[in-house]
Amino acid sequence: MSSPLVECVSVVKSYENGRIRALGGVDLEVEPGEFVAVVGPSGCGKSTLLHLIAALDRPDSGTIRVAGHDLGREPNLDHYRARHVGLIFQLHNLLPTLNALENVQIPMFELRIGTAERRARAQRILELVELSDRERNRPPQLSGGERQRVAVARALANEPPLLLADEPTGSLDSEAGRNVLDLLGRIREERGTTLVLVTHDSDVAARADRIVRMLDGRVDESPAPLAAVANLRPPTLRPIRA
User: Going by DSSP bridges, is the β-strand pair 20-30/35-39 parallel, antiparallel, or unpaired?
Assistant: First the structure.
């Protein structure tokens, strides 16, 4: 049996000198190649957990291991982020003054890849996300769905084993959201990439291998159907047109 790619043990995180407890002792394991959706009401700690796994912040206590790396003892977190994890934000966080090809190359600078190889790799990834014809366009010249696909390409730039997605379809219309999810599913199937995705949307969560529900800063182990998860958006019902 393989070891978990992600292992969180008794993870605690507070803010404002302990006044706000975002995580109250989270235990979570994610297997290599697994697609896990993390759901729950706003403020339950979903995004905080994702940011800790991405090493954008450190827990107050507890242990987080990713691909064998203990993040509490990792001497170079920039090195870890560059090689082991790709992060997709809800609002894509692309640099508006750079074109798509340049945005995708940003994570590669940590690896000190030469200019020609960096450009060639970015072109291959943009082809993967079906944006080869848009590589010269800057974010304001792209649709919302295209911007998010560039964000996915950027997250894949260094071929990480783990993708972390924080509400990646939250700012998109239904069709663009489906396209992004289809893309993530295809990448996972072709590359064996592990995907941990935070969402409020029951349709998005239903596509995962496993749904992890969070409540009040902890993983909620009580059994409940997906439709009963607090604050998840139900599927949108649209009128049928003749």
Answer: unpaired
Class of residue 1 by CB neighbours under 10 A (exposed 0-12, middle 13-18, buried 19+): exposed
Report the largest interatomic distance among the alpha carbons of the chain, rounded to a whole angstrom.
Answer: 62
Residue of 28, 92, 38, 84 whose CA lies nearest to 59:
28
pLDDT in tens, the chain (242 residues): 578 999 999 999 999 887 888 999 999 999 999 999 999 888 888 999 999 999 999 999 999 999 988 998 888 888 888 889 998 887 778 999 999 999 999 999 888 889 999 999 999 999 988 899 999 999 999 998 899 889 989 998 888 999 999 988 877 788 888 888 888 888 888 888 999 999 988 888 999 999 999 998 999 876 554 444 444 444 333 332 32
Pairing of strands 194-198, 35-39: parallel
**CB atoms < 10 A from the CB of 33, how many?**
16
How far apart CA 124 and CA 178 sit, in angstroms, is: 22
Kindly state the tokens that stand for 82.
């560059």
Q: Which residue has the tokens 């940003």?
A: 106
* Contact between residue 128 and residue 187 where contact means Cβ atoms under 8 Å apart: yes
According to DSSP, the residues that pair with 87 across neighbouring strands are 164
Query: pTM of the predicted model, to two decimals?
Result: 0.84
Which amino acid, one-letter code, is at 34?
Answer: E
Instruction: Look up residue 61 and give its amino acid.
Output: S
Neighbours of 41 (CB within 10 A): 15
**The dihedral formed by the CA atoms of 172, 174, 178 and 179, expressed in degrees to the nearest 10:** -60
User: What are the tokens at 46?
Assistant: 């979903």
**Dihedral pair phi/psi, residue 101, rounded to 5°:** -60, -40
